[in-house]
Structure prediction request, 312 residues.
Amino acid sequence: MSTLILIGGILGIFAAIFLALTAVGVFTNEARGVSKSLAVMEAFSTAPPEMQRELEPGFHDRVLGPLADKVQGIAHKLTANDHVENIRAKLELAGNPPGWSPDRVASFKFLGFIGAFVVGFALTQLFGAGLLVTLGVCIMFALAGFMAPNMYLYQRAYDRTQTMQRALPDAIDLLTISVESGLGFDAALSQVARNTDGALAEEFARVLQEMQIGKGRSAALRALGERTNVPEVKGFVSSMVQADALGIPMAQVLRVQSREIRTKRRQRAEEKAQQVAIKILIPLIFCILPCLFIAVLGPAGISIYESFSGRL
Prediction:
């Protein structure tokens, strides 16, 4: 019995010591944490305004960022996988605008649908429209808001296509001169990407980057053809891939490609010049001729009216 009491007393002493050390550590850590928090708050309050603006999260980080993440999650759940692939293809054609991704485009379409519907409903209520008119306007506004990101990407892709189409002949000429002067195809492509600007230079630079990370030349060129819908670029890529596979001299192929692209550009210019007469008919009939008739026949009509009104 005395042995059990002795063991229990020893265990009690150790337990008391452990609890005392634990309590001291907790209070010390709590005091240390409070002191650190006070020190951080004091340092932040005494910091320069420029540093405070850098350290303090803005409205975008506190509100817009989490809201955009939630909207992207909802839009991703409502979007099918094949639709995501279509959006990714459109982004490739548009040059991958900064900050745009398939999930973000889907969220933009979702927000555009909701926002345009609310705007349409507010406008119809402001003008006191009926039920059918309100429903029709809301549907049209919602569809317009839903299709707005697609229209933006289409316009970006169209502008980029036109830019690449205009810049391709000069780029091929520079590439041909570089290869004929003794440079390799990769070095000549680097010269074109470094000495020119625009979407075509960016695509050539991307081809070089893909080749540097281990992609083959033919695969990188085929990827370039898939990222654009310019027929001349696709033809150039196909010719370069075939020349690389068959061992045909690059300078000869580039010379032929340069001549063909120049011929196609001249034919395209002649085609657009011949379309001017057709395109000018609509403004001529509805805008120019009525004004001409008013200017020529107006005074005569006024004189005839005065003559007949005097006889009545």
